[in-house]
Amino acid sequence: MAARDAGITNLRVMCHDAVEVFEHMLPVASLETVQLFFPDPWHKARHHKRRIVQPEFVQMLRDKLKIGGIFHMATDWENYAEHMVEVMDVAPGYKNTATDGPYIERPEERPLTKFEARGHRLGHGVWDMKYARVE
Questions:
Q1: I need a surface site. Which of 28, 75, 80, 104 has the fewest CB within 10 A?
Q2: Which residues are the active-site residues?
């Protein structure tokens, strides 16, 4: 079903670098939700600095989220999940929405992706995290 047929009027698709989109193309406090599902884990330690979930990125993202807005992340790499929690737990203005540990169950609204299916086939777990902008 096309977006027009569904009555969706606030959807934009951009083929551009995500960081540049956030920095230059999105108004402050304009987003209710940002979803980052199965980003490249850059699993070699020397490449961890290339992971998108870094303090600078999450602060830039916070500026674009409305108060109460959600940053939802999912990964099938346990080390990256731990990294995401470490970054987010010290990021000013965010609160983890999980109530039993740092992770949540896969929400119904998140589709089962090919990356998640691949992770299950390889015996990987999948970790979902949701952080709300609180200030």
A1: 28
A2: 40
The separation between CA 118 and the C-alpha centre of its own chain, rounded to angstroms, equals: 19
Decide if pLDDT at 83 tops 60: yes
The encoded tokens of residue 73 equal 């992340």
At residue 17, the 3 state secondary structure works out as coil
Residue 13: HSE in the Cβ half-sphere, 13 Å Cα cutoff: 3
What pLDDT does 123 receive?
A: 84
Kindly report the average pLDDT of the chain as a whole number. Answer: 91
Two structure tokens written together for 11: 């959807």
- The domain limits of the chain are 3-133
Q: How many residues does the chain have?
A: 135
Residue type, 110: R
**Which region, left, alpha or beta, applies to residue 6 given φ > 0 means left and ψ of -120 to 50 means alpha?**
alpha
Whose CA is closest to 87, among 27, 26, 39, 33? 39
Nearest-angstrom CA–CA distance, 78 and 64:
27
CATH code for the domain defined by 3-133:
3.40.50.150
Residue 124 burial by Cβ neighbours in a 10 Å radius (0-12, 13-18, 19+): middle
